Amino acid sequence: MEDNRSKIHETDRKILALVKERLEVGARVAENKHERGLPTIDADAEQTTLGSMIQFAGEIGLEKRLAGRLGELLIEETVHVEETKHPAQSKDQLMKEMFELTQKLLAQRRKITRFEIGEPNFPTPNEVVRGLTATFRKKKVIGYGPSAGLPELRKTIAAQLTKRHKTMIDPDQILITPGARFGIFATVTSFVSSLERVVIPQPAWPAYEECVNFVKGRPIPLRTSFEDDWDIDLDKLEFELKKGVRMLVLNSPSNPTGKVIAHEEFQRIVDLAAKYNTMILSDEVYDTYVRSPAPSILEGDYDNFVYINSFSKHFGLTGWRIAYLVATKENTLRIRRALQTAITCVPEFIQNGALAAMKRAEGDARRRIKAIMEKVELTCRELNKIDVSFHKPEGAFYVFPKANKPNFDSLAFAKQLLQKNGVSITPGQAFGDYPEFFRLAVSLPRAQIPSAIKAIGAAIESWP
After folding, report:
1. What share of the chain is helix, strand, coil (3-state, %, to 5)?
2. Which pTM value belongs to this model?
3. Which helix (H) or strand (E) holds 161?
4. 271-306 pLDDT, tens digit each
5. From CA 345, how far away is CA 357, in angstroms rounded?
6. Which single residue of 107, 396, 429, 436 has CA 20 to 30 Å from 336?
7. Is 302 in contact with 274 (CB distance < 8 Å)?
C-alpha cells in the first residue's frame, strides 16, 4: 500500500513538472503572438491540440473523456497565463466606456448630442404604466411567479408570433427573461461548453462574444465587408461549420449595420446550419424597424434554434428589462433551469406592464417606430453631405458610416469628438476589426441631427 502511494506521489510530481514545462512553452508562444500582433486565442490550433491528445489517449488505452478534460484545462490555463501578461479590453467594455464617458460629461452639465446609445428616446406608454399600477391595486403582496413567465403573457406572445409568422408556437416554448441580453446569456450558458466554437458574423453587437467568453467558449468571427454590402460569405461560413461549431449567431436586422438578411440567403444559411447540426441563436429584436418584413427563424422547419426578442425596442421599455425567447420545449426546459438558478423569475408587475403594452399600446408603438425610421432617413440625407461612405440601413435604427480618411482610428476620433464637439458616437472597434467605421444610433431628437452630422463631418475633415 505504502509503496503504491509513494509511486502515486512521485508520478504526481512528474506530471506537475511536465505541466510547468508546458505552461512555460505556452508563455513563449504567447510572447511570439504578442510581438507579431496576433490574437491571444487560436481556436483552430486549440482544436488540433485537443484532437491530438484525445487520439493519443486512445492509442495508449486512456479514457478519451479524461484526456479531453485534461486538454481543456491545459489550454484554458495557457490562455489565462497569456491574458494575465497582456490583458485586452473587451469590445463590450469599449462600448460601455463610451457610454460612461458620455454620462460623466452630462453630469458636468455639458450639452451632449447622443448618437452612442441604442435606446428609443420615447417615453413609456401610458398603457404600460397603468398595467403596472393595476397589479398593485389588485394585489397587496406580490410573491414569486413561475420561472417561465406569467401564463397569460406567454399565451399572448405565442398567439402573436403564430399569426405574424404563419407558424404554430406553443406558450410552453416561450420563456420571459430580464432583457434580451440575459436571454442570450442564458442560452449560451445552457448550450456552449469550454472551447466549443460559436460563429459570430461581424460587425456584431459585442454582447454575443462576451457571453461566449464567459463560459470559456471560442467566438469565431466571420467577417463581412462594406464592399460586399455586409453579406455573409456562405463559402466561408461552411468552411467554419465543417470544423464543428456549437452555435451560429444571427442578428437581422443588424446592430450596427442595419443589414437585413435577404429571405433566400437566410434560408441558405439555415440549410447550412442544418447540414452540420449547428444551433442557431437568432436575435430579432429589431424586427419591427423594417420597411418590409425580415425573414425569421420561426418561419422554417429547422428546430435547432433559439429565437430572441424584446419589449425594449418595440415599446421603449429598455429600463424595464423584459424580453422573451422561443425554442423547442426540450431546449426551453434546459434554458429555464438557468433562469431558475440565476433570477427565479421576472417580477410580475413588469410582466403585466409588458402584457398591457401588447394589448393596448401597439398603435402608439408603431407611430413612434415610424418617427424613428424617418429620423434614420434624415440622418442618411445629412451623411451624404459629409466625407463618409455607408450603406443605407434596411432595418433597425443604426447607420454604420466609414470615414473616407486614411489610417482613421474611430476610437480616438470618438473620444475627441465627444470632448471637443459634444457629440457621442460608438467606435467601429466595439463591433469587430472596423477602425474606419463608427455607429450612429438614431434615436435622438430630430432637431439635433443636422448640426450633429455637420459637426462629425467637420471633425473628420480636420482629422487627425
Report:
1. 55, 10, 35
2. 0.91
3. helix 151-165
4. 999 999 999 999 999 999 998 899 999 998 999 999
5. 20
6. 396
7. yes
